[in-house]
Amino acid sequence: MNKYLFAILIATGIAPGAWAAAISAPDKSTASFTVQQKAQIGEAAADYLRAHPEILIEMSQKLQAQAQNKQMGSAVTAALQEQDALLNDPTSPVLNPKGDVAVIQFFDYQCIYCAKVAPTVEQFISNNPDVRFIYKEWPIFGSRWPASIQAAKVGLSLYQAGGAEVYHRYHTALFATGHNEGKLLDADIRDAAVKAGMTSTPKADVEAMDTTLEANNALAKRLGIQGTPAFFIMPVKGATADNVSVIPGATSLQALQAAVKKARSGVKKGD
Q: What are 41-79's pLDDT values in tens digits?
């Protein structure tokens, strides 16, 4: 019996044994308490919760954990259904394309949590040259801060024109500005492109990236993710519900490494 329920029953004067007998009775009519007992239980429960508010906090945390676990389970299932879009989209910038495990990150340049996790991501990439890293530009703050969309489109156009290394330099330069949550300027975007080694970003090429952003947005919705950053970690071949991980929000280097280890350990030899 739950320890809090036990305490409430003691407070009402109703023996826990009597409660257990009542709720287990095959005849449901005998399981109902008297009006007076119901009132006692209600009053005692309210008094107990007022005296012990930590119970509500604990219950809330448990409910949140259950909801998150359910959401992550759904996201894993969706990731298995969307493997091709996650792993093989030619418009998505990719580092270390021969890696046996892939980490896919959905992000927005104006997302403060994406900015906070950016150094961790860079350290992870540096430490794991055998892991495929895939960037999914998802400017969810674009309706509030247009620079979010512009930065994403410029980045994708640079990838198309100059490849992964050019894109990576641009990407790191933008986050290095520290300008997020509406602070990113057009000048920041131009400077980052120059630092990446591209002095020209034709407008037509940039605007053509709308199609990729629309596809990324549709993919994110199918995956059921609610915000940025979001990480999907899976083996390139042999992905199952047991070796795919979904990490919502900013994370740690240790968590990313653990997810990679999980992805590798869950793949059968020969897959």
A: 777 777 777 787 777 676 666 655 444 554 556 899 999
Distant-in-sequence, close-in-space partners of 205: CB < 8 Å, separation ≥ 6: 157, 160, 161
Number of neighbouring beta carbons within 10 Å of residue 230: 23
CA distance 267 to 111: 34
Nearest to 6 by CA among 17, 14, 18, 16: 16
> What domains can you pick out in the chain, each with its CATH number?
3-57 (no CATH), 76-265 (3.40.30.10)
- Alpha-carbon distances of 126 from 39, 121, 123, 131, 239, rounded to whole Å: 63, 9, 5, 10, 24
CB 127 within 8 A of CB 103: no
For residue 40, what pLDDT is reported? 73
Q: Is the pTM of this model over 0.70?
A: yes
